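Support request, please re-run this one:
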Amino acid sequence: MRAAAARSGSFAAAFEQEPIASAGVGDVKDEAFAHSFGRERLWKRSPAALAHDARLAADDVALKDWQFLCLGEVANFAAMRRHVGRARADDLAYEVLDRIAATVPGVRGSVVGRGLVEFLFEGDTIGDLEATLSRLASLFAQPVDLDGEHHHLEMLFAGAAARVPNTEDVRLAEEAEAALEQARQDKVSVVRDLSAGTPAFDRLTLMRELPAAIRAGEMFVQYQPKVHVRRQEVASVEALIRWQHPGRGLILPGDFIPAAEESREVAALTLWTLDRVIADQRLIAMAGYNIPVFINISGQLLADDAFVASACDKVRNGGAKIGFEITETSVIRDPQSAIANLQTFSEVGITIAIDDYGAGLSSLAYLKQLPASELKIDKMFVMQLTSSNRDPLIVRSTIDLAHALEMEVVAEGVETQAALALLSVMGCDMVQGYLISRPIVIDALLTYLHDHRAQKTGGVEHPMFRRPKGLWKAG
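Re-run finished. Output below.
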């Protein structure tokens, strides 16, 4: 048992205490930790809703294939404010979320504006989202009891759906917001399916434009820190490539990386990223933070000898601390070549991390052969950590397995202090997610590193490591 777990008691003992609040479940309305997508205000749950959550957790029997992000808006908010007064109207969104929580299994949510709520849940098919929004529309067609008076809330609902392995948080949020705009015009619930694609992101067009975009400097890199839980310091950062298209605006990797792979431009794109990251890592080291920077490597490239040779030369001559993140499924494509080339990377000093562990078909036979020192637990397990019955068991067993293989563990998608606290109890080594930092450009990263060090040097506990009030029941 790691030191963090020893300080907090056993894993089983932790669950004998009061359950950790799930994302969107707080003891007070303005709890100072953030929900998904950087939202900061959580809703107050009624005892009935909390009891309902406990029953749902016991029924959580399988991982879901789809993730849904929804927005609900009180369309007659202004009229309701005139009827019930400003103070009572400001609580309407919390009333809405309580009713949603009692209706939708496994939901997490937050208030994002006056009369506007955001909620997240999972399902087996996109039909689950359509059925849920229909059920909620029927629910709110009935009058709502507010302090003994019955009022009608005119609700608009909209949602975006994506398959779990392909979920892009920002894209999902943007599509949900666009769906709500359409719902306001059409006065009906609107659903957008990200798996179907959109004309604005036609893959053939992206394939045709990508080579020129690399040459024209339309690509840029953002960095997301990974924080060591016990040391409470930044241990490394992950580089994330973005495409700032002159006509379409920001295009995220989920749209253009598949196009790069299909057009055989992924090697050129990755080598460009590696050059940029090596230069930025030198800046980070010159500022006094000699931490590695990780980049994501496509599975295609693990069997590309020319890419392997070029990447090794760049790292060998660049004098920078670089890591490569690879997915477990990329190894399964061609295990013999992949394992040999990963060993070559390791020999030139590149740290290897296994990304999105658990999202694909995990193979222990390959896992034990990889020269990896880091394993990253996929965010779909972490984001449901405090609202699911099975995900904590999966996460804890993965942490134990990685430690037995002498690997450190990174939890992706950490967005609440509750999840951070539970991961600490489990012995997780590092965390990454919007609670720590969103992806930021190099100048902002240097400022972040400076501020983080100044807090630690001054003996000030970083806000993300402060245990929320009422998190554990006093024993």
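The chain has a mean pLDDT of 81. Residues 266-286 form the longest helix (21 residues).
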